[in-house]
Specification:
Elements (H helix, E strand, L loop, with lengths): L1 E3 L2 E6 L2 E4 L2 H9 L4 E5 L4 E5 L4 E3 L12 E2 L7 E6 L4 E6 L8 E5 L2 E5 L3 E4 L5 E8 L6 E6 L5 H10 L1 E9 L4 E7 L8 H10 L2 E6 L2 E2 L14 E3 L2 E5 L2 E5 L2 E4 L5 E5 L2 E4 L16 E4 L7 E4 L8 E5 L7 E5 L6
Parallel strand pairs: 23-28
Antiparallel strand pairs: 1-2, 2-3, 4-5, 5-6, 7-10, 8-9, 9-12, 10-11, 13-14, 13-15, 15-16, 17-20, 18-19, 19-22, 20-21, 23-24, 25-26, 27-28
Length: 324
Amino acid sequence: MEVVNGVTYLRDDGRLLELTEEQVSLLDVNTVPSLWHNTTKDMIQFNGNNGIIDIGGSGLIVEDPTGIVDADRGKIKIDYDNVARSLTVRPYTENGYPSFQVLDEGTLHIISTPQTVTVPNVYAVYVLYYDVSSGVPVLMIADYDGLSDAQKGDLFREYIILYFAIYDDVEAAWTSIMTELHGSSMPYSVHKYLHDHFHAVYGYGLSLLDFTSGDGSSENDCSIGIEAGMFSDEDIPFHTPQIAKSIFAPAPLSIENGKWKRYPDTISWGIAGFGGRPLYNDVSTAGSESMVEMASEKFGYYILYATNDMFNTFNYVIGQGEYN
């Protein structure tokens, strides 16, 4: 900070950001070891007992840190049980961690005891989180798609989000568990903004490797590899090793009978139909979606993507049409 003609400013890469007396007082009272300017929201964000100073003219906004202590992300383990339809969050004791830390509105909590939740035998996308309203973190789970927009906003603001998970009653299994172990240095408003508008961001690598443009008559024509690389889900980096060339597709996904269906990754690319042609996902009738073999001399598409799914780093969505 610096004072020019009696006015206090924070210098941000050559730009002077004016602070009010109240904001200066806040910075003076609290030790602020780290400051950065969030240019998207035009706010000063810092790691401390107060999360954000609004410099956009709307007054002082204070967000106490809530989330996983950044250094403890690797100390958390989630276990799943398909028969019991349960999820358990616990310290990663196998790796030598007897506990991990979370912050709730600036209050530190140390968690050393496993907690388990169960779900009914219905298909749903669930969100797993800690509720600290009682003064201690209690593991909770909710049907995310069943929440209103306002409830989803409250979820990001008031609770410590841990994972998203899909339970499929037809498969009688958890088919996807996605990590949301975001650090406490990222305020909820930034988390929700990034979650709603940006999602994951590409880092490097992840190109297709060793593919051949043939006529599809050989296994080699239908095989690809994937380059090692990195992407980030907000503040969580995901590093992936190179995937060797294979005819088998990583976790194909389609919509069938109104639900996402995941095929095993022992299925070949295109999921060849009875005549040897690829299939596409016919979604023309809601609730009765199905897989249909492409007609002769037609083509389709498949979308390969990297994800925060602990079961499959890579997935691909089967295309929803055939084309000339």
